[in-house]
Design brief:
two-stranded antiparallel sheet; alpha+beta; 153 residues; 3 helices
């Protein structure tokens, strides 16, 4: 365990673990979870299970994939600090349709890392890498880090 408030140690750990996190995020964005197109129904369910599995790995409990009239909602909780404030994090694992396909330099569900003028160190290009799978994954990993380093609450 490292000092959770030691920024140099945190940065070193993040750099060390970055390849693994990138590969997992690439797995996540490769799931075609287009919520507005019935042909991607299985992708929606695969993505919900992916999120639930990562929440469990992070240390959350009471994980549920709840059916709805539309697509499943994934919930989880951590009750390790009775009497402390509640934090709610919301995100979504579905994505918008990738059309028009001819504007993609690579397949929308085939993540690639490319450098650009605004991403000189590279960025993952795939549907959902920014909205919102990337953010969902970031929040799960932040919670996991806090659990692993005993800095909650």
């Amino acid at each position: 365990m490292i000092d959770p408030w030691n920024s140099a140690a945190i940065e070193a750990r993040l750099i060390n673990e970055m390849p693994q996190h990138i590969e997992t995020l690439k797995q996540f964005v490769s799931i075609p979870s287009v919520s507005t197109d019935p042909q991607y129904r299985e992708g929606i369910h695969t993505a919900s299970r992916f999120v639930a599995d990562r929440l469990k790995t992070a240390g959350l409990t009471d994980i549920a994939i709840l059916p709805t009239a539309g697509h499943p909602v994934v919930t989880a909780a951590w009750h390790g600090a009775p009497g402390k404030p509640t934090v709610l994090v919301y995100g979504h694992y579905d994505v918008q349709p990738p059309d028009p396909m001819d504007l993609w330099k690579s397949g929308p569900f085939e993540p690639v890392i490319r450098t650009t003028d605004i991403h000189p160190e590279g960025a993952i290009f795939a549907r959902g890498s920014c909205d919102d799978k990337g953010q969902v994954y970031m929040h799960v990993k932040a919670f996991e880090y806090m659990m692993r380093n005993n800095c909650l609450p």
